[in-house]
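Final report, closing paragraph on structural work. Over the funding period we assembled a curated collection of sequence-structure pairs, and we close with a single example.
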Amino acid sequence: MAIDRGRIEAAVAELLAAIGEDVTRSGLQQTPARVAESYEEFFGGLALDAAEPLRESVPLGESEAETVLLRDVHFRSMCEHHLLPFLGVAHLAYLPRDRVVGLGRLAKVVEILAARPQLQERLTEEIADTIVDALDPRGVLVVLDAQHACVTTRGAHQTDASTVTIASRGELGDPVARAELITLIGRGVA
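Its predicted structure, as stored:
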């Protein structure tokens, strides 16, 4: 389903009027169109298949690869509770079974899933499940660390607070294996 820019523009104009603003004043005349354009980007993942980037993989052959860890994948998403952004970094690890995928394709999965109305907890799980479903790895670990505007700019006003969520699957559900990777995420590769 495509984003309906006209409806977004009308809703934004109504919202501005509802807070007591004059939608015709010079500073606001283009605001409904700007918001509609930004919403196309913020929610563009709704029309995309998050597994698509992982469909082209490379066979490993006889050798068994160890862990693949991609750190510091920056993302932005929109909290579905307040329609305010949350920004953070994703760290993705997987234990390949018989194939690997380009690292940029993992980042694309994060981008697609984050471009939907989201909860960080669900986003973490969806990333892990997409990697499992598309690559059939021996294990997956996804760690998201994000700051939420609904916490930093309203309500609690905790400007330095961040939220960490973790999803693990398969062999990386083991606490020892998971701890080793979390250490690598936090400190860098030794």
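The helical segments are 5-18, 31-42, 103-114, 120-135, 149-152, 175-187. The chain is about 35% helix and 25% strand. We thank the funder for supporting this effort.
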